[in-house]
Design brief:
This protein is about 30% helix and about 35% strand. It is an alpha+beta fold. Strands 1, 2, 3, 4, 5, 6, 7, 8, 9, 10, 11, 12 and 13 form a 13-stranded mixed beta sheet that branches. The protein binds coenzyme A (COA).
Length: about 300
């Protein structure tokens, strides 16, 4: 592969690196489309808990110009996401260096990714095949469930209550997750500034939602939202909205072709963005999890 003068591939290895990747990703997303989804304030430092060696940066003349996350969940399964370049530097071959580094890091594991429409054929050339679609939804809090006034008695604010053992939460989430990621989950649900709501009935967890702040002000990101039924998902969403005092936009990603999820988005007066991503896998160990209960994926950059 051709060398690019003054370009180097760097493996992120410190909180400073992870935060710098987060900041650049947020900037580039806004440059591409200011009305689009954004990234959470702490996302990349938290991704590094899954795999501290799986985040790569392409640096040109000392400036980060392209990034990729290729996290190894375990010895069988990896996920590649956040493959993004500064719009000024695209098409010059730098992304390919990172893509190759990401693939090499994943080794012989099965790899999942959500492909942007223009990238599907590119990934097929590297052996990925299409396995479904994912979509982006948004809900404006001033639209949703405006007639709801009270918080449901089944909702528990996990971070401010303290009586639900983390082990119970981890067990509930495992059914809906592509891999056991309990260290990541523990940090994700307690990250600074997030709200984690549980739906608990007869001492049994039946739903969990995490709402975190996006890098752009007035924007929230929902993920994951796991629930045993559509009605529980709607209850959790309604409670989030009641707890946000000012008009905001909530973004979340869903796996498409699930009638319950489509109905949930309708009930919550949300809307789907037109562009869809293609869920793709390479390898045989495709993770099985209860996709019917996934009303919002944790984040498209790490899958599930
Ligand atoms: C995808 C991306 C990170 C690649 O980085 P890059 O530095 O442009 O990469 P390269 O120049 O090495 O090109 C790699 C591939 O990206 C694609 N590509 C190149 N220029 C592109 C552009 N301006 N926009 C979108 N895709 C582009 C091509 O398919 C190319 O593959 P090929 O030449 O082997 O067929 C970058 O183009 C980008 O940020 N695109 C927009 C965001 C995006 O779609 N990310 C992928 C999400 S799955």
């Amino acid at each position: 592969m051709a060398e690019i003068p003054n370009f180097s591939l760097v493996r992120a290895s410190s909180q400073r690196d992870y935060s710098a990747m987060n900041r650049h990703f947020s900037d580039w997303l806004q440059q591409d489309d200011p009305d689009n989804w954004t990234v959470g304030i702490h996302d990349f430092p938290l991704y590094s808990i899954i795999d501290p060696n799986g985040l790569f940066m392409g640096v040109l003349n000392g400036e980060i110009v392209v990034i990729i996350c290729a996290v190894n969940y375990n010895s069988d399964y990896s996920f590649i996401g956040a493959f993004w370049a500064n719009p000024k530097y695209r098409g010059k071959g730098m992304g390919t260096h990172l893509w190759n580094a990401g693939l090499k890091h994943c080794g012989f594991r099965t790899i999942g990714l959500y492909a942007a429409p223009g990238m599907v054929a590119r990934y097929e050339r590297d052996g990925f095949r299409q396995c479904g679609q994912s979509g982006l939804c948004e809900i404006r809090t001033d639209n949703i469930l405006a007639n709801r006034r009270s918080i449901s008695e089944n909702i528990v604010d996990y971070n401010n209550t303290g009586h639900i053992p983390f082990e119970d939460v981890a067990q509930f989430c495992r059914k809906y997750s592509p891999a056991d990621r309990r260290d990541f989950l523990k940090a994700w649900i307690a990250q600074a500034g997030c709200m984690t709501l549980l739906y608990v009935k007869n001492h049994i967890i039946k739903g969990l939602g995490v709402l975190r702040r996006g890098c752009e002000s007035g924007r929230y990101l929902l993920g994951p939202l796991y629930a045993g039924s559509k009605d529980i998902a709607v209850e959790i969403m309604a409670d989030f909205v009641l707890r946000i005092s000012h008009p905001s936009v909530i973004y979340f990603g869903v796996l498409k072709d699930n009638p319950d999820v489509e109905q949930f988005v309708k009930d919550a007066k949300g809307r789907f963005h037109e562009e869809v991503a293609t869920v793709m896998y390479r390898g045989q160990n495709i993770p099985h999890f209860d996709v019917n209960g996934v009303f919002a994926v944790t984040c498209g950059d790490i899958g599930g």
